[in-house]
Prior knowledge:
Helix 2 (83-92) packs across helix 4 and helix 3 crosses helix 4. 23% of the residues lie in helices and 15% in strands. A four-stranded mixed sheet has the order 3-2-1-4. Strands 5-6 form a two-stranded parallel ribbon. The chain has five helices and six strands. By secondary structure, the protein is α/β, with parallel strands linked by helices. The protein is globular and about 50 Å long.
Amino acid sequence: MDAPLRMTNVPTPIGTFRVVYQGRTLRLVDLLERGTPESPVPPGAELEKGHAAKDSPPAQLREYFHGRRQSFDVEVPEDLGTEFDRAVWRELAKVPAGTTITYGELARRAGHAGAARAVGGSMHRNPVPIVIPCHRVVGDDRSLTGYGLGLWRKRWLLEHEGAWPLRDGTPDGPRYAGQRTLDARRSRRPANAGNSS
C-alpha cells in the first residue's frame, strides 16, 4: 500500500517552509511568505498532525537547519521538471555542503556546455530548494547572483554550510581582514608579515 501524501509546515530561521511528501519521496518545499508566489499543493495532500516521523523529509529538513545534517536521504520524483531540468538537478545534488559551483560549470557537468542561462531557469523551477541546493550555484566570478528565495537567504544558507564568504575581490568577499574565503582554503600569510632577518 502506498504511503499517504502528507503536508507539513517546517519553521526555520529563514522562514516557514511547506513540505509535501509521500514516504521518502519529496514533492515540494515551498517558502510560505506574504508576497512570495506559492506552488499549488498536489491534490489529496493531508495536513500532518503532530511531528513528522523520524527520517521523513520534514524531519530531515529540521535536522539540516539545526546543523545535524548536511545532505538529504530522499527521493525526488522523475515527473518533476523537464528532461534538461532533471539533468541539471542530478548534477547539482552532487555538490556537497560547504562548496559552490558556477552556472557555467553546472551546465557543463549536466552535458550542456554553454547553457548557463538555461541552468538559471532550472534553478527557478526547482520544486525542492535546499534539498536540491540551488543556493550553492554562484556567478562565474564566484559572487552571489539571483535566488528565488532572496539573496539574503542564499547568503544565510551558504554561511550555515560553511561556504561563506565566497571570494576575495568580489562584493561578497571577506567581511573583515584575514577572514578565510572559499578561494583561499590554504592558510594565508598575513598581509603585514615581512621577511625575518
